[in-house]
Write a structure and sequence with these properties.
The protein is α+β, with helices and mostly antiparallel strands. The chain folds into two domains: about 10-55, Winged helix-like DNA-binding domain superfamily/Winged helix DNA-binding domain (Arc Repressor Mutant, subunit A), CATH 1.10.10.10; about 70-140, Lrp/AsnC effector binding domain/regulation of amino acid metabolism (RAM) domain (Alpha-Beta Plaits, 2-Layer Sandwich), CATH 3.30.70. Helix content is about 40%, strand content about 20%. The protein has a four-stranded antiparallel beta sheet with strand order 2-3-1-4, covered by helices on one side. A hairpin with a 6-residue loop joins strand 2 (about 95-100) and strand 3 (about 105-115). Helix 1 packs antiparallel against helix 6.
């Protein structure tokens, strides 16, 4: 897999969007001293290359009544059931993240619920999926970090420039 080569302008546009994904192209262009059209074209190029895959909305789930977080390790009857179980998990809205994993669990999932009773209902629903033999749950006491901004900033710092003149 080839790493996409970013030039200085691409990196700076990404830094601005990382800081505030709602920042307008015009505001970014002013800061970078380029035209808004340049920012627009560059963002479209980054989207086409698959580097930008959209912007996300950050919510305060506590304020919405869904502050209870648990991680569910899912044991599978056979590895061949993995994709069917993943498809079934996609139909449970409270499953917000799922990873195919190595180690004890075939799948490791994150659930968001209103309370422990709600979490119990979701865990039972997961356990009822064909191909699931057992689950193991860990309750999160507090979500302290939920951001990839530091990692993305580090990646941008480490990536070589595409244009040798930079």
């Amino acid at each position: 897999m080839d790493v996409y080569k970013l030039d200085r302008t691409d990196k700076e546009i990404l830094r601005h969007l990382l800081e505030d994904a709602r920042k307008t192209y015009t505001d970014i262009a002013k800061d970078l001293q380029v035209s808004p059209g340049t920012v627009h074209v560059r963002v479209k190029k980054l989207e086409k290359a698959g580097i930008i895959r959209g912007a996300s909305l950050q919510l305060d789930y506590d304020q919405l009544g869904y502050g209870f977080i648990a991680f569910v390790g899912i044991y599978l009857s056979k590895t061949s059931t993995t994709h069917a179980v993943i498809e079934a998990l996609k139909h449970i809205p409270e499953v917000t993240v799922a990873h195919i994993a190595t180690g004890r669990f075939g799948i490791f999932a994150k659930i968001r619920c209103a309370n422990t009773k709600h979490a119990k209902d979701i865990i039972f629903k997961i356990s009822d999926i064909s191909g699931v033999t057992n689950t193991e749950t860990m309750i999160a006491l507090e979500e302290c970090i939920n951001s990839s901004k530091s990692l993305l900033a580090s990646i941008l710092n480490d990536l070589p420039f595409g244009d040798p003149a930079d």
